Amino acid sequence: MKKLYVYLLAFGVFFTATSELVVSGILNVIAEELHISTALAGQLITAYSLAFAIGTPIIVSFTSRMERKQVLVGSLAVFILGCLVSFASAQYATLMVSRMILGASSGVYLVVALGSVAKLVPADKMGGAIGTVILGFSSAMVLGVPIGIAIAGWLGWQAIFLILGLFSLLVMVVIFRRFPKIEGDAPVSFKDQLKVLGNLVIVSGLFLTFFRESGNSVMFTYLTPFLQSILQMKLSTVGMLMLVFGIFGVIGSRLGGFVVDKWGVVRMILIGLAVHVVSLALLPLFSSLPAIGCLLIAVIVLAMFTTAPAIQTFFIQQAPQSANLVLSLQTSIIHLGLAAGAGAGGVMVNAASTVLYNPWLASLIVGLGLVAALACVSLSGRNDAKPAQNKKYR
């Protein structure tokens, strides 16, 4: 029965994550219908990420003592409201407000869902259960985005959010009626937070996360325009490519956990980031060859998702007693990076009047993440993490 609860939470993550990821796939459609530039449409992603990064930890802190089912239901209720506002949005300002509502509510739901899983299952089953919830996020990229693009072409982009709201309402009702009561957590003291932020290895690791996610956002916020205007892909083909890239992401996530045990955390991070940087730098050079361009994007996605488990494991190794706090901080940094990258990407598009050069800017920023990773290695006082050390963090 507890496994069913975990899958129920994963379904909720799938719908909330789709609301985040699908906008990148329909950016041109939104820009055209609202009569705004692609760069301005990209700031919808910035607004979502800022609301997620800033609003989530504040709301989670204020609701930390509340019973978990109440917070799950409440966050989904607010999420559904955000979906309805998006559905009814005929102006950019209204849509921007809805993105903020969706960002904060999605963040709260994700954090509380992961925390609930930790109390639902035994300690020896926790990793698999958390992986199932995270799979809801990965599945949003593989299935949610392509389906959303198809719905946008069939019924219009607003219909995506109405459908997300209806399915989320179903999940909310099931959680309200069937989900068990789970006690809230004691809030983390400010003193404990300062201890973590005083760890230079953790701080440099957070810089790694920030630069990596900023670079990714510069590229992937404007991926659909890049595929259409630079690689000359039709919108229907873009939907299929998003599915293919999503599959590469799922493969990367599974491969990353396996390779970490074989190669070690640090080696995996450095190799993955190096491949990431080089692939981004090469992409504009092959803009006249769509097949090679798409292959390079697939490699970028593979490197991105393969590196993610290694980065999370590295954080856990550095602060095993404060793993939840560190990963919570990392989640906020991820979305701050996404917001910064979407903004920087928009500036680049406006300055160059093309998305052709966004991969070069992304390569430079991810390169800064590689520098931060090297600083992490130096500060941690080791060159690599042995497989034997990693296995307990699988």
Describe, in plain words, how this protein is organized in 3D:
- This protein has 394 residues and is mainly α.
- It contains 16 helices and no strands.
- It has helices at 2-25, 27-34, 38-62, 68-88, 92-120, 126-155, 157-178, 190-197, 200-220, 223-230, 235-263, 265-282, 290-318, 323-352, 358-380, 387-390.
- α2 (27-34) packs across α3 (38-62).
- It is globular and about 55 Å long.
- The chain starts with a helix and ends with a helix.
Summarize the structure in short:
The chain has 394 residues and is an all-alpha fold. The protein has helices at 2-25, 27-34, 38-62, 68-88, 92-120, 126-155, 157-178, 190-197, 200-220, 223-230, 235-263, 265-282, 290-318, 323-352, 358-380, 387-390. It has 16 helices and no strands.
Work out the number of β strands: 0
Helix-and-strand structural type: mainly alpha
Mean pLDDT: 83
Percent of residues in beta strands? under 5%
Task: Identify the notable features of this structure and list them briefly.
single chain; 16 helices; disordered C terminus; mainly alpha; 394 residues
